[in-house]
Structure formats: structure tokens, C-alpha cells
Amino acid sequence: MSLHRSSAWPLTWVALAVITYATLHPWSGWRWPEPQAFSWVLPKLPNEVLDDLIGNLLGYVPLGLVMCLAYLRSGANAFAAAMWTLLFCSAWSYSLELIQYTLPTRVPSISDWTLNTLGTAWGALAAVTIHALGLVDIWHRLREKWFIPQAGHGLALIWMWPLGLLFPPPLPLGQGQLLPHVRLALMEWTKDTPWQAWLLPEDPLMLWDRIHLAAVQSEWQVVIEVLTVALGLMAPMCVACAFARPRVTRLLLLSGAVGVALFTTTLSTAINFGLQHALTWVSVPVVVGMLLGSVGGVVLVDRTRTTCAALGVLVLLGLISLIHLAPVDPYYAQTLQAWEHGRFIRFHGLSRWFGVLWPYVALVWLAGRLIQPDPQSEPVPTMPS
Question: Is 257 helix (H, G, I), strand (E, B) or coil?
Fold first, then answer.
């Protein structure tokens, strides 16, 4: 059995968290259900929306796929992996449907549970098919050649990075602005208490004005934007170089990061502001920042994995610091309001949390790589021809 840590298990936990978030949104108004309203047998709703039915079916396909692959990667045979996946995901879906009795805005449905289970079965079937075709074994052999054994969580981070870019950040590639969300949560928790005035200004929409006026002068805004974009591009590059082995693999990953950044940012802008505005995010500071980030990626190519992890920690700390100095963009605020109060929040709005939390999770992973450094700290070998 391969000694490599599979990225399927981290992706499974992420998929479970995403589904749980979407199923129980808006996570407010909890109440204990009346005895006559609660039933262990899920009800059949008289009116069902086609979009919801399709969402319930397709939403569990990725979960069934990655969980079944995780079981297969752990050594289970195909039948056992499919059955464990189907039983667990079906029980998870049923539990979430029961919890919906405690939310006034959500209604449990046996159709939802049935479609969730069917979606899981489709995903598990796809995983078993991939395994039977030998594609999983091919991927394992490539992983052993391309990446270190501890690359599982790092690969999961690389897969999740573009998801956070779908929700427009304050600056292009500027992920990690967590403090506003923390302070807004504190406002809710301290509502109607003396602590509220101490934690937050009276108008939450002016949350960052004091910080900007005190810490950032207007002539530094362009510099901050350039550095934020550069560090935002270098962050996934540092993660990739902290687990990639051959030089060619690193070059492919770094080139892919640039391409994904361009494509995802353009797609996000088109989704939120219209196709005619898809390239409005492109500006001189952004282009300069991406060029600096690309140059930084070239510097990483021949560095050891431990060095890349150390540089990654510094890059992420710089990114988190700078993104909290980003100016308040009225278009960003308008989009934020539309996502939080519109139909995007249940699924598409989840990408906001990927973007907010990704730098912190990556920071923890890179710090772990420094605590337990790669024993092979020699210069990165080239791919044999």
C-alpha cells in the first residue's frame, strides 16, 4: 500500500461541511419542534421545485465520489467502499433532514433524502468505475513520483483555492479578510449589551473607515493593491512547492496557478457583474502584482521544500495583513449584500468562506511542514528524461 496520505479524506470532510452548511442555512431561528410537528418518517411535500430536486441529487454526487475514493485509497474493496459510503451519506442526509424540524425556514422532505441517497450512489458508482479502469492506480503511481507522501492535505488546499476566488474578494486574489466577519459576529453576540459599543461602531457599513484613515494613506493604496495581488498569487505557489518533487512538476503547478487565477477571477467578475464587465478587474496595479507574483514563483522553483514552506508562512502572513488594509469598494459591498441576501448564499455563497478561511488553513499546514520538515531537504531534482 502506498505511504502517501490521500487528499480524498480532506476533500470528503470539506464536502460534508459544505453540504451541512447548505442544508441548515441560515443557521438561525433555532427552536424545539412541537411534538405533533415532528415525525421520524419524513413527509412528502405537495409542491416541489425542480431546481431544488436537481440540487439535492447533484449535490451529493461529489461527496459520494470522494468518500468512496477515500475508502478505496484506505484499502477497502470496491463493494465495501461503496456500501460504507452509501450508508454513511444516507444516514447523514437523514439526520440533517430531521434537524431541519428545528429551523422555521427549512422543511424536511423524504424526496430530498431519497435524491441525496441516489446522488451518493451515483458518486460511489463513478468512483468504483474509475477504480476498476485502473485510473486510481495510475494516479497513485504519479503521486509517488511527483509529490511527497505528506502531500494529501496540500493537494486538497490546491483544489480548494480556486473555489474561494469565485466570490469576489476586496482585491483580486486577496483572500483572508476574516476580521470583518468576526466583528459582525461579535455584534450579533453582544447585541443590546454594553460590550457592543466597545467592539463595533454604530454603523457596521463603516466598519473599516477608521482603520483605513488611521493606517493607510491614499498614496499607499496602489502599493497595497500590487503587493496583495502578488502575495495572493504566490500563496498557492508556496503550498504547491512545499510538497512537489520534480522541477518540471513545480513548473506545471506554478503555470497552472497563474492560469487558474486569470480564469477564475474573470469568471467570478462575469458572474457577479455581467459578461460585458468580465475583464474590468484588470488594471495596471493588478497586472504588475501578477507579474511580481509570477517572478516570485520562478524563485521558488529551485528552492527546497522546507524553504518554500517557510516562505509560504511569510507570504500568507503578509497577505492576511494587507487584505485587512484593502479599501472599501462600493461594488464589492453591493455584491456582498446580493450574495448574502439572495439565492446564491446556499451554494455559491459558500465560496466566500473558502476565500476567507483558505489562507489560515494553508498557514497551519505550512507551519506543520516546518515543525516536521521533509527529511529530503536537498535541492529539488529534475524529472528524468
Answer: helix
For 59-99, the pLDDT digits (tens) are 899 899 999 998 988 888 989 999 999 999 999 999 999 99
Are 293 and 319 in contact by the 8 Å Cβ rule? The answer is no
Q: What is the pTM of this model?
A: 0.70
Average pLDDT score, the chain: 79
Please give the Cα distance from 41 to 48 (Å, whole number).
18
Residue with cell 482603520: 211
Q: Which residue has the higher pLDDT, 2 or 203?
A: 203
Mean per-residue pLDDT, 123-142: 85
Per-position b or e across 263-276, b if 16+ CB within 10 A of its CB: ebbeebbbbbbeee
> Is the pLDDT score of 332 beyond 70?
no
d(CA 301, CA 304): 9
In sequence order, what are the beta bridge partners of 147? 244
Contact 125, 82 (CB under 8 A): yes
Contacts of 240 (CB under 8 A, 6+ apart): 154, 158, 250, 253, 254, 257
Closest CA to 324 of 233, 215, 164, 165: 215
Q: Are 165 and 175 in contact (CB under 8 A)?
A: yes
How far apart are the C-alpha atoms of 303 and 309, rounded to whole Å?
Answer: 10
What does the alpha-carbon distance between residue 174 and residue 34 come to, in Å, rounded to a whole number?
46
pLDDT, position 270: 83
253-278 pLDDT per residue, tens: 899 999 999 999 998 888 777 788 78
Q: Check: CB of residue 31 under 8 Å from CB of residue 104.
A: yes
Long-range Cβ contacts of 37-42 (<8 Å, 24+ apart): 37/101, 38/101, 40/98, 41/110, 42/94, 42/97, 42/98, 42/108, 42/109, 42/110, 42/112, 42/113
Surface-to-core class of residue 230, CB atoms within 10 Å of its CB (0-12 exposed, 13-18 middle, 19+ buried): buried
Q: Is the pLDDT of residue 106 over 70?
A: yes
Distance in angstroms (rounded) separating the CA atoms of residues 312 and 238: 5
User: In angstroms, rounded to a whole number, what is the distance separating the alpha carbons of residues 350 and 24?
Assistant: 13
